[in-house]
Every structure is written in structure tokens, then in C-alpha cells.
Amino acid sequence: MSTTQVRPTNTQAFFVQAALSFGVSAAAVATGVAFLPVDPWMRAFLALGLLYVITSAFTLAKCVRDRQEESTVHGRVDQARLDKLLAEHDPFKTETS
Fold first, then answer.
1. How far apart are CA 27 and CA 52, in angstroms?
2. Alpha carbon distance 6, 9 (integer Å)
3. Could you tell me the pTM of the whole model?
4. Which residue, among 67, 85, 63, has the nearest Cα to 75 in the 3D structure?
5. pLDDT tens digits, residue range 39-93?
């Protein structure tokens, strides 16, 4: 019996669409902030907020990806193997020749 690992994958087109969507929306908001008719300090404050939103978006995407990987059978098997290795590991064991 062969073991075939089935892992859900996204197509290259989906990845490109997601990247372009994020890039276009970030550029649109950045352009909007740049051309607001307000004082420079207000514009800088909004730009700082934009950087926070972009960083948060990447963090959220990573968390969603990690949660999805943990829920797969492959991820659970890898975690079980790691747990077994850590349980069997003795850091004070010395090898003598």
C-alpha cells in the first residue's frame, strides 16, 4: 500500500491574484493618503497607520496559514513525530567511546 500525501495547494493564478489585489489596494490607500489636503503631520500619522495595517495583514495571513496547516492530517502527523522525538531526547546523555 503506497502512502500518497494529499496537501491542498493554491494555484499560481490564485497567488498572483491575491498579491496583485493586495498591492493595488495598498497603493491606492497610500496614494489617497499622499494627496489628502491636510497638514503634513496628519498625513504622516495616517501613513504610519497604513504601515500598521499592512504589517497586520501579513501577520493575519501567516496565522491563518499556520492554523490551516495544523488542521491537516500531515501537520498532525509531523507534530506527533516531533513530540515523540522531544520526549525521547535526553539532553544529559553523553556518548562514551
1. 14
2. 9
3. 0.53
4. 67
5. 999 999 998 988 888 888 888 888 888 777 777 777 677 778 888 888 888 778 7
In the numeric block, which cell numbers belong to residue 28? 491606492
Pairwise CA distance, residues 26 & 58, whole Å: 12
CA distances (Å), origin 39, targets 33, 44, 47, 87, 93: 11, 9, 13, 60, 66
- The residue ranking higher by pLDDT, 67 or 37, is 37
- Rounded Cα distance between 63 and 67, Å, is 6
Annotate the chain with three-state secondary structure: CCCCCCCCCCCHHHHHHHHHHHHHHHHHHHHHHHCCCCCHHHHHHHHHHHHHHHHHHHHHHHHHHHHHHHHCHHHHHHHHHHHHHHHHCCCCCCCCC
Cα 60 from Cα 54, distance rounded (Å)? 10
